[in-house]
């Protein structure tokens, strides 16, 4: 941890970084700035290319979503989760343009290192690039996520070049997966449920 502090890590990040920007009012324009930084960070990661094939250790999204799209026989799930699972199956079936994904981009995983934003804690996935943008909409807290959703959708679509319908579909799939994980661990997926109810 001392090393992080020397390089403007989590302490300074939470004091004045992306999370604080997002909690400010939309009229301040700071959530727009935070969303743009996250989008630019994702685009920079996706732009990295190499001469070799991606490592076999990367987890394909079909495996990452397996618990959602292949539920245990007889498992009882809410209708909203079932509908989202159907969306996920359709997205993954048509996922022909795979890129290496970070897998967990959000407001606490992009840090300011001496004026340069860097993503940490990658999950090592491979799949459609839209997946990396989905978690932006769920953070840093439920109230902020819901209040800023329409504006964020416009900004992310503009930065990524992905149409809004496509982004919403991937967000629906991600929220359902996140909700299922949270419930399995004994928690209540407030943000994921709220987004699915409002915008899914």
Automatic annotation (TrEMBL):
Keyword Glycoprotein found: no
Keyword Transcription regulation annotated: no
GO terms (BP aspect): secondary metabolic process
Single GO molecular function: phosphotransferase activity, alcohol group as acceptor
Top-level taxon of origin: Bacteria
SUPFAM superfamilies according to UniProt: Protein kinase-like (PK-like)
Keywords (A to Z) from UniProt: Transferase
Protein name stated in the entry: Phosphotransferase
Species this chain originates from: Lacisediminihabitans profunda
Upper taxonomic lineage: Bacteria, Bacillati, Actinomycetota, Actinomycetes, Micrococcales
């Amino acid at each position: 941890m001392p090393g992080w502090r020397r390089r403007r890590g989590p302490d300074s990040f939470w004091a004045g970084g992306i999370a604080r920007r997002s909690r400010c009012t939309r009229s301040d324009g700071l959530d727009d700035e935070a969303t743009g930084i996250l989008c630019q960070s994702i685009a920079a990661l996706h732009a990295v290319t190499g001469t070799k094939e991606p490592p076999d250790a990367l987890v394909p999204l079909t495996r990452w979503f397996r618990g959602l799209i292949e539920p245990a026989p007889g498992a009882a799930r809410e209708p909203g989760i079932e509908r989202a699972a159907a969306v996920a199956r359709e997205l993954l079936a048509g996922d022909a343009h795979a890129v290496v994904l970070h897998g967990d981009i959000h407001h606490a995983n992009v840090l300011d290192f001496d004026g340069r934003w860097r993503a940490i804690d990658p999950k090592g996935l491979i799949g459609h690039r839209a997946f990396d943008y989905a978690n932006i909409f769920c953070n840093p807290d439920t109230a902020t996520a819901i209040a800023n959703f329409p504006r964020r959708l416009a900004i992310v679509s503009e930065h990524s070049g992905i149409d809004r319908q496509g982004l919403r579909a991937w967000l629906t799939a991600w929220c359902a997966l996140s909700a299922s994980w949270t419930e399995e661990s004994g928690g209540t997926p407030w943000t994921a449920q709220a987004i699915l109810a409002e915008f899914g």
